[in-house]
Design goal:
The complex is a heterotrimer of chains A (480), B (490) and C (96). With 480 residues, chain A is an alpha+beta fold. Chain A has 3 domains: 3-295, no CATH class; 304-413, no CATH class; 422-479, Arc Repressor Mutant, subunit A (Orthogonal Bundle). Chain A has helices spanning 53-65, 168-185, 225-244, 290-297, 304-313, 318-325, 328-339, 344-362, 373-384, 390-401, 407-413, 422-435, 437-444, 451-461, 468-479, and strands at residues 3-14, 69-70, 73-74, 77-80, 90-93, 100-109, 112-125, 129-134, 142-148, 155-161, 197-207, 217-222, 253-257, 262-265, 278-279, 286-287. The longest helix of chain A is centred in the middle third of the chain and has 20 residues, at 225-244. Chain A starts with a strand and ends with a helix. In chain A, 45% of the residues are buried. Chain B has 490 residues and is of the alpha/beta class. Helix content of chain B is 39%, strand content 12%. In chain B, α2 runs antiparallel to α3 (49-64). The relative contact order of chain B is 0.14. Chain C is mostly helical and 96 residues long. In chain C, a hairpin with a 2-residue loop joins β1 and β2 (86-89). The longest helix of chain C is centred in the N-terminal third of the chain and has 18 residues, at 20-37. The chains are: A alpha+beta (480), B alpha/beta (490), C mainly alpha (96). Chains B and C meet through α9, α10, α11, α12 and α13 of B and α1 and α2 of C.
Amino acid sequence: MKWEPVIGIEVHVELETQSKMFCGCAVDFEAEPNTNVCPTCLGLPGALPVPNRKAIEWITKIGLAFNCSISERSQFHRKNYFYSDQPKNYQISQFDVPVCHDGWIDVTVDGETSRIRVNRAHMEEDTGKSIHVGESGRIHSATETLLNFNRAGVPLVEIVSEADIRSAAQARAYAQTLRTVVAALGVSDAKLEEGSIRFDANVSIRPTGTEAFGTKVEVKNMNSFRSLERAVDFEILRQADILDQGGTIDQETRHWDEGEGVTHSMRSKEGSSDYRYFPEPDLLPIEVTDEWRNEIAATLPELPAARAARYMGLGVDADSATSLAGSDALTAMFQSSLAAGAPAQVAANWLTGEVTAWSRRAAIDIADSALTGAHVAQLAGMVAANLLSSTAAKEVLGYVLAGEGDPETVAAAHDLVQINDSGALESAVDQVIGENEDQFARLAGGEDKLIGFFVGQVMRVTGGKADPRAVTDIIRSRIG
Amino acid sequence: MTNPADLTLVEAATALKAGDQTSVALTEAVLTRASLTEAAVHAYLTIDRSGALAAAEAADRRISKGRSIGPLDGLPIALKDNMMTRGVETTASSKILAGYIPPYDGTVVARLREAGAVFVGKTNLDEFAMGSSTENSAFGPTRNPWNLDTVPGGSSGGSAAAVAAGSALAGLGSDTGGSIRQPAALCGLVGMKPTYGLVSRYGLIAFASSLDQIGPLTHTVEDAAIVYEAIAGHDPLDATSFPGPAPSGTERLGEGVSGLRVGIVNELSGEGIDDEVLAAFRTTVQRLASAGAEIVELSLPSTATALSAYYLIAPAECSANLARFDGVRYGLRVDGGTVDEMMSRTRADGFGPEVIRRILLGTYALSAGYYDAFYGQAQRVRTLIIQEFARAYEQVDVLVSPTAPAPAFELGAKTQDPLSMYMQDICTIPSNLSGHPAMSVPVGLSATGLPIGFQVMAPALGETVMFQVAAAIENLSDDIGRPVLEVVAS
Amino acid sequence: MPIEIDIAHVARLARIELSERQLADYRAQLGVILDHAARVQELPTEGVAPTSHPLDMVNAFREDIVRPSLDRDEVLSQAPDATDGFFRVPPSLDNE
């Protein structure tokens, strides 16, 4: 049977506020264990939570960036479950009325754009961290658990998509797009490897062409975009195998094992959970008035999608526009290149091509390189004026990035400027013809492949600084 | 001359100001009283003798230099043991917190400390404030100084007994369903629950967060008003704290009741109320009428369902509030092979039966499939009660009823029947559900010499008129005097 | 209406380890209390919004300002078991 995957993604984003969600302890992951704790985030008897205004503004900002409606009045709930790294044994979260609901983002895979609906974005608090101590370092063979509550109470935004995603590649693209937007908003450092943004996938499959949903499985523990894609792909195949053999899918949570490239069941003895949500009596409702909402909206930066669209309007191709818009450093460099007079598509090509590759190779951030927008403009100008061959231009760029100076200085210093003086070129051509009369007779006689030989000879005598097209033209003119 | 332990706050403050007393002498007097009465009464779980004397000496130094810092400076006060006191053991009368030393002061404690109050110690309560007799304490019951065979009421029975016995001049209690007012009634004191949100709950061990309020237990209405004014006011550490100024408690104490409209709640003043209590209630209403109040009879039918709603809402909230007691970060731990086993054993061993009963009840009321029928419905009933009260307060300035359905009962009389114990709070619970202020004033003694209380209820932020009416009732009633304790008399 | 209570499940949710006998006792007591509490179902509440707070207030926030945390030694002095700055508990055995 042909199966269609149905995928939803849940994302947890840690906000990078100064202080925690409900108390004044610092948000600082470098600190010594249990030093950023107070009665509130440690769940001491008698302590009470007071929400961080900035966190509410930031989740609203996130909601607006994902085209969500902002609830006029939302509410905190208690989500009750016992876990030793959860100080109160309930998590302050949101239930029926989240701050943000019913939004969407556009996601592009292989040039095809789909709109993925965002069900909600709600505010909650993070848990502490457990270290399972044992020979293998794994939960199931641990002999004891050590608890650090520095992370407990860090503001967390959970963004839940609708089950609109239809492939692992699309799941990855959704996650990447979402991360780019969150990073652009400046509300989180959004680093997967540090867990400040975390993705879980809900995966089910159904016979292609049918409407009813299959049994969904939650897949956790993917810490890169690649592992998200692999895990979802694995899960789709696993479920298809089971169903093809007449089996049934268990509704469960599965753990992605990056090393083995498989998902494992995380069955706990608790069975199905019963979170006993009820309105948090220690907290008042949150009212986001139109006025407050507009103030927050006014702080929204230009988002990557809008920025990419604007660049495409300048004539940049779609892929380059998306790459430029997705990076703050590239965006800044591109803008200053344009301001210095560089043609948009040319600057885009350099920045997304050579410059990005150099940055990766050298492991130096583009923003920290010696390159300026003025350099890009100058380089583009030299190429347009035939002063540099494209090969020479790449070389020049490398020297500029390495800090040797501006393109004109560097090209001169390395003797890379093309000979554009037609008299000089013509005498070079005539010199080569004079030295190779036999071959020239054969070329003139119709043996056209010999043109390459002559161009090569001219390049040799000019030290590679001649424009091959100009040389070709002159040779042809001599054939008459 | 009166023993300093039997002074009111106002009398003691006046004596301090005049130089006729010192804070150390007052503190010594209540500590001496405690040393005589505690074996029989057991009002305190912890007496902080050295801390109290040090605070008293500091107060005396201020006062002698003419730098008194307010009406409570140097006055010995008892704190219910569910309020966080930095460095002083705080247990909520539970085995699960035995030996727990908090690293911080609750807001009310901090405010009283700044106002110069002297903390005598921490008083007994029903475990986690769940109960109406102070018998549900892991550390043994408290007895009523008026009759040692009877209970002091609860859950703030320790503070009530301490004040009644003279082992503190005033006490603080917390009131979730009547836990200040009912023990005040049973111990012959004034007990007051402020409007929800006027007094910070930061540092009060939560029982039912949407109902809990801290308030005073004192000998007089004026004393209660002074303590209330010292503890009320906005606290940025409590998100449910009322942001505006707290209404005055003392402003209209002497103004009488002439022209005020006083409403009798029929549902709370008939069925289920003891004859002697009803008679005292009617006498007091008569006196109010004679003093110029207009008496209006009112029906508030949904109050009949208040007890049912309360016994869903309070356990539900407590089931989450008490989840943090798990043996991980503080308090008791009973070992187990897994963290889960450890938690389940710690909680089974650390909580008493009434607490377990309410946690189970609340867990059930919130669990899947029952939420709407129980918790959700109880919260809708709560809305009905609030609406009914709002309509009533369009017609009257205050509402009145008996405080407790009967005078103090004997120890053990109700411990086997939870429901009959719960009935103790039938008149006090509606004000917790509505969030309105309410207080109890002593209005007489039963034939067997046990105190009887009278409840005054007011609309939200109606403290000023409530204290005004309570003060008038105090003036119109016969003084019930103080309990006679043989250990003290001899 | 007779109220069904899966008392073992409730005790498990609440993390309280009780004997069979205790479970039976609590089930009986909860039955009596819930019978009484079920009176809330007799009032007509259609269209009535549930109260989750007695005061009609909104938006109590704190500013995003760091305040001093507690001293770790003081915090850990109250812990039943602590080591090297961590709280220590038995293993969770989530898997298996």
